[in-house]
Structure prediction request, 264 residues.
Amino acid sequence: MLCWKPVGTESLERLAARIRHGALEAVSPTRCAGCERPGELVCPDCLERFNLIDPRHSCLRCGAPHGDLVCTECTPREESGAGAECELWAGGPDRCLAVAEFAEPLSRMIRAYKDAGEQRLFGPFAEMLLDCAQHAERVAGERYGDVLSATDAIVFVPATAAAFRRRGFDHMEAIARHLSELAGIPLVDVLVKLGDADQRVLGRMGRQARARDAYRVLERVDERRILLLDDVITTGATIVAATRTLRGAGAVHVDALALARVLQ
Prediction:
């Protein structure tokens, strides 16, 4: 005869969570956000397909791959007179690091997280950022040796009010909070995004103009070394504007870490 033990509140909560999870899986089984394969949210095959950016050769200034000598993304091309990229990154982060290029399947995963309601991806994304920073410290110590270990606080680029209303959550806040827990580094939620426009519909110059004075800080970050998180770096306008705001609030060092880097 079975002898049932009293069930505490915590056990009941876990049991209820398992029941809910089982019911959801029965109705809508978990599928990979990159390829729709059932069973895992991020499958090993999709991880293998990421175009990872090697921190030994990435551009310290803008995070683009193969930019350790001359970066075509942020270095002006004098022969063509194209200096806008260089001007844009002036005053940007001290160092920039990204997990991978913005390409399938990572780009599809990011869209699924931000716009298709797959909020469970905050966990895997935070783990990717942590792995990226730790890997950079190991293999490129002379370039990124303290990008994580010397960080005093994690700050994330916030969503606009319109994006928050549309999605029902701040996509970078969820990732940042989990990364803070994993790395044991305090999260400081100090940035506020002004305006409601979606920068994804804007070009390089439009993004640059919109980003100017787009951020405010809720409190100062005097003498702190900041790790600034964003999902995708496109032109750099957002990262640079947020960095300038943090420096204006007293930050002594700002590094940027992102999931993906768009190649122009």
